[in-house]
Amino acid sequence: MVTEVRMPRLSLTMEVGTVIEWRKAVGDRIAKGEELAEIETDKVNAALEAPAGGFLRSLLVAAGVEVPCDTLIALLTASADEPLTAHGAGLATTTGTVGDQLPPIPSADQGAAPPATVDEEGGRPHVNASPAAKNLARELGVDLAALAGTGPGGRIGLEDVQRAADARRAAGAAPPTMGRVVPLTKMQAVTAQRMSVSVGTVPQFSLQRRLDMGEALRYLRNVRGAGKADERGPGVADLIHLAAVRALRAHPELNASFQAGDPPAVLLHEEVNLGLALALPEGLIVPVIHDAHTLNLQSLAERRARLQADARSGRLSVGALSGATFTVSNLGPMGVDQFTAIVNPPEAAILAVGCIRNIVVPDPLQVTAVIMVTVTADHRILDGARVARFLETLANNLDHLDTKS
Amino acid sequence: MAVELSRESRVVGEDAPDRATLVRMYETMVTIRAFETRLVELFNAGKLGGVLHVYIGEEACAAGSCIHLDAGDYLLTSHRGHGHVLAKGADMNRMMAELFARETGLCRARGGSMHIIERSVGILGANAIVAANVPIATGAGLAAKWRGEGQVVACFFGDGATNHGAFHEGINLAALWNLPVVFICENNRYAQFTPQRLHAKIEDLAIRAASYGIPGVQADGQDVLAVHKVAGEAVARARRGEGPTLIELKTYRYTGHAISNPICAIGRPDEEVAAWKTRDPIPLLREYLLSRNLVAAPDLRMIQDAAAARVAAAEAFAEASPRPRPETALEDVYTEWPAGVPL
Amino acid sequence: MAGGGAAVRELQYRDAIREALREELLRDPAVVLIGEEMIDPWGGTFGVTKGLSTEFGEDRVRNTPISEAAIIGCAVGAALAGMRPVAEIMFFDFIATGMDQAVNQAAKIRYMSGGQVNVPLVIRTAGGSGRASAAQHSQSLEAWFIHVPGIKVVMPSTPYDAKGLLKTAIRDPDPVLFIEHKMMYNYKGPVPDEEYLIPLGVADIKRVGRDVTVVATSRMVPRALAVAERLAATGGPDLEVIDPRSLVPLDRATILASVRKTHRLVIVHEAVERGGFGAELATIVGAEAFTYLDAPIRRVAAFNTPVPFSPELEDYLVPDEARIEAAIRETAA
Predict the structure, then answer these.
(1) Which of B41, B235, B292, C234 has the largest count of CB atoms under 10 Å?
(2) Are residues C165 and C272 in the same domain?
(3) Whole-angstrom Cα distance, residue A328 to residue A244?
(4) pLDDT computed for residue B192 by the predictor
(5) Per the domain annotation, does B284 fall within a domain?
(6) Which of chain A's residues have a Cβ under 8 Å away from the Cβ of C295?
(7) Is residue C300 a contact partner of residue C239, using CB atoms and an 8 Å limit?
(8) Same domain, C219 and C147
(9) What's the gap between Cα A326 and its chain centre?
């Protein structure tokens, strides 16, 4: 009996995935649930587990090659030598013996002799390229797996890499530069793509409001008691989160998603899953506090702190990065007074938070702490009035944090 | 050329060396005996590594011949070379340190027992390849002749070496070029473990000299006076520019070929060893000195004690000396090497 | 090469060597030549030492019996005792009968003595095939000696290199094996009038090029250069031909710099391929310039057989221009 292994769809937004590394080789005996490969998605890396036990008979996709979700990527059989030939269309034929090699997979471009083949030993694909070519490819950010080599036996040489880099430059894919070329991290590449889509397809507008933090800060002092603030205890950001979440309950159209269709509709989400934009060295990531509407200030603070810690140590799961219904982006700690964020599709709106400042209010004369916030919203389902009302509620909530929501 | 086969065991009359010479030779023999005996003890106690080829029983050969060599003369010897090296005037402390594999050794612990070299006293080296020192001695003889200052080369080897090609080539060339080299074969009847009758068809190796056209002389290697006589004549010939001599000294080693190998304990008949021990060269000379009232017994005792003290001091020096740092292993492969090029 | 203004003559390889010997005999009274058939009227099997015994006497140019162990051993002893002997081993193959003196004695005595002594001797010998001299008179055995620490190994390919390197070798304080090629004695080349020395451990770029580094030794150098010219004329790869000149010490810096430029290396030597100098150099370059290589390193060497008598068979074994060119084209593909 043949078991199919397909590229999993690990989140609602995942379209494609890449096998980073095959952990098993053709011919290996596999237990159900054993890790077959490490997969890279648009968000995190994850383990691909065997859906059943058996023998790994073929690897249909090379490491490093991006394929759409649901693509057949490997085959397991219950016994070591049952034939595979009858299974599915478009698969390479294999004989019944364990350990057979698979012929190479046609690469994405023109059907020239493909360079990547599955290696006998570790299921790791061997790239037929000279050491100098590999070195240059790394420097120029050229993907060897997509190249056809013109050297003996299809070997990729320096000239092939240089030609590919030149062609890419000529096609305008990368701007000609006199400087140092640094390839984007996977995280940065995802952000680049998603923000392009957002600006390209979602008509967005922004409203700003100044939030008076006086009452909120008094509330916070009471909550904290006499001790100093520490990271795990609630902070100013958590006040904003609590107020925003309560405001979203009152204005569900901001906790929603546009749905194209006939007729177009708005999907109002049941729960508030609060996305928190977080900057890491590798790029921007948005971990999620799920069911934020059920949490009090303390719990919101704890969840936020845990997500931050997990993000920094690379321990975030795919689940922690999915399902956001509304995103908050806070550049207050970095001294930014006010800014405009870009909507994070498919969410309807995003809240950009600036830093807390003391200003002098003339009448009555006093010094008060304020924060500038900006909401950017999807104009297909929101208008200025709705967003303004949301901001009004948000401001009010900050003055009345002690009430149960 | 003449080959004198001697079976005389005692030299008398005008041929006998003077008292001072006799005392010096006695001192040399006793020193060698004390050194080698202590080495065996140290080796069996696990303090010395490698191999040890001990000279006990053959002391008269070294003492009687090396006394004719000046500081400027050259010495080549074999793997069983401690006796010659000490007789030529090697620094005993640094020799012991070499055997203890210390940095202060003559060869900085690079050579060990079989490759003792002390250039400053003309010891061009002990050699671990049997007979390899013969052509090298010829070369040293070439340099001595070229320099023209009357230098002489003494080259010591055993009976086994006389069968080797290098022996033949080296002596032939020294003879042809009339070089000032004295070739001394210490025939201790065994080449490693093989008795002479199983490695050569002839009994008297000195006759091989005839095939090179040089004099061959034989003497009783246990009798230091006999050794002194024949060696003196050969050295004088060489200094006069009359070319090389091959000397065969009939001698015997009281220990096995090498100390480290258990096979060494086997093979020689007990009666044979016992018979040779009755002709121990040191008691033989002592008896000669005492019976002729040349030296008093207490003086001989003093010489003995002094030798023991020297050996003890050498041992203490060696024990206290540092071991070489491992990275120094890369030094002195070459005299000159371009900078920046890996070895 | 020669400085500006110096007069330059066309000399044969053998004459350049003789000049070196003569100049050093004149300069240093400790220099002595030892070997078979060296004295006049023979002047050596290949005529290299002709005239020297007449000029310097048979005490300084010494004829020996057929005794390679004695020849080399005598050189060792003489060197230890203050002379500068230049021993000749008539055919490289014969060194086997003197191996103990070369390998166990000459190469090791300095080290064994803890640096007390040195052995400043030169062993000159004629190697290589091409005279239908068959297996025991035609070998190139430098690989045996690059494997022995303590000895230096030199292989000149031109009269200019031969003279400058031999003078340096004679003045060198360590044992040097100086390997001439019996088929090159007639080769002519420019040699300056003025005295010059070539240091050991310096390679010579005989031809600058862009596309493939070719490292060649001895008789293979002119063959590699001929291939380079033919390829240049027909629009083929542009070769950089490097002659290491001394194998020990080896100028790896020059060779590595060249490979970093061309990304390709072909090594050509007349010695048998297995375990030859090419194997050593290929490993050094593979390790030190790995990421610069755009093609596998190739060796072009004699097939792993003894040298046969028949000229056709003899020529077939040794790399000829066609075989060298084929290897280069394959590397440049």
Answers:
(1) B235
(2) no
(3) 9
(4) 80
(5) yes
(6) 130, 151, 157
(7) no
(8) no
(9) 15
Mean predicted confidence (pLDDT) in A146-163: 89
- Do B124 and C104 lie within an 8 Å CB cutoff? no
Q: Which two tokens stand for residue A2?
A: 């043949």
Domain extent at residue C289 = 204-332
Residues C139, C169, single domain; the answer is yes
**Structural element, H or E, at residue C298:** strand C298-302
Query: How far does A102 lie from chain C, in Å, by closest CA?
Result: 26
Assigned domain for B331 exists: no
Q: Which percentage of chain A shows pLDDT scores above 70? A: 85
Higher per-residue pLDDT: A103 or B18: B18
The C-alpha of B107 sits at a distance from chain C's nearest C-alpha, in angstroms, of 4
Evaluate if residue A402 carries a pLDDT over 90: no
The mean per-residue pLDDT over the stretch A79-108 comes to 48
Q: What is the pLDDT of residues B262-312, one digit of tens each?
A: 555 566 888 888 888 889 999 999 999 999 999 999 999 999 999 999 999
Which of C290, C330, C333 has its CB closest to that of A131? C290
C-alpha to C-alpha distance for C151 and C174, rounded to whole angstroms: 7
Residue C198 lies in a domain: no
Give me the CATH code for the A2-127 domain, please.
Answer: 2.40.50.100
User: Total structural domains in chain B?
Assistant: 1
Q: Residue C308: inside a domain, yes or no?
A: yes
Provide the token pair at A215. 């009452």
Query: Do C98 and C187 sit in the same domain of this protein?
Result: yes
| C292 found inside a domain | yes
Find the mean pLDDT for residues C258-279: 97
Contact residues on chain C for A131, CB-CB shorter than 8 A: 290-294
Smallest CA–CA separation between C283 and chain A, in Å? Answer: 15
**B-contacting residues of C 281-320, CB under 8 Å?**
none
Residue B158 lies in a domain: yes
Residue tagged active-site, from C19, C24, C88, C137 = C137
**Which residues, numbered 5 to 64 in chain A, qualify as contacts with chain C under a Cβ-Cβ cut-off of 8 Å?**
none
Confidence of residue A173 (pLDDT cuts 50, 70, 90): low
Residue A130 and residue C294 in contact, taking contact as beta carbons nearer than 8 Å:
yes
Neighbours of B185 (CB within 10 A): 28
Topology of the domain covering A189-399: Chloramphenicol Acetyltransferase (3.30.559)
- B145-167 tens-digit pLDDT: 999 999 999 999 999 999 999 99
Is the bond preceding residue A83 a cis peptide, omega within 30 degrees?
A: no
Residue C264: CB partners within 8 Å, gap ≥ 6? C211, C212, C213, C293, C294, C295, C331, C332
Q: Model confidence at A128, in pLDDT bands (50, 70, 90)? A: confident
Specify the DSSP class assigned to residue C301: E
Peptide bond preceding C190 in cis form (omega within 30 of 0):
no
The reply to whether C323 touches chain A by the CB within 8 Å rule is no
Which of A128, A134, A135 should one mutate to test binding to chain C, selecting the residue with the greatest count of C CBs within 10 A? A135
Residue A174 pLDDT = 54
- What CATH number is associated with residue C285? 3.40.50.920
Residue B333, domain member (yes or no): no
C68 in catalytic set: yes
Query: B176 contacts in C (CB within 8 Å)?
Result: 65
Q: What is the pLDDT of residues A191-240, one digit of tens each?
A: 998 999 999 999 999 999 999 999 999 999 888 875 565 656 789 999 99
Nearest to A151 among C292, C293, C333 (CB): C333
Note whether A158 contacts C294, CB cutoff 8 Å. yes
> Helices in chain B by DSSP H: which ranges?
19-44, 59-66, 82-87, 92-99, 133-147, 165-176, 224-239, 270-277, 281-291, 297-320
Other chains touching B, judged by 3 or more CB pairs under 8 Å: C
Residues of A in contact with C290 (CB under 8 A): 131
Domain count for chain C, please give it. 2
Q: What is the predicted pLDDT for the residue at B13?
A: 55
Q: Is B43 helix (H, G, I), strand (E, B) or coil?
A: helix
B166–C149 CB contact, under 8 Å: no
Active site residue C195: no
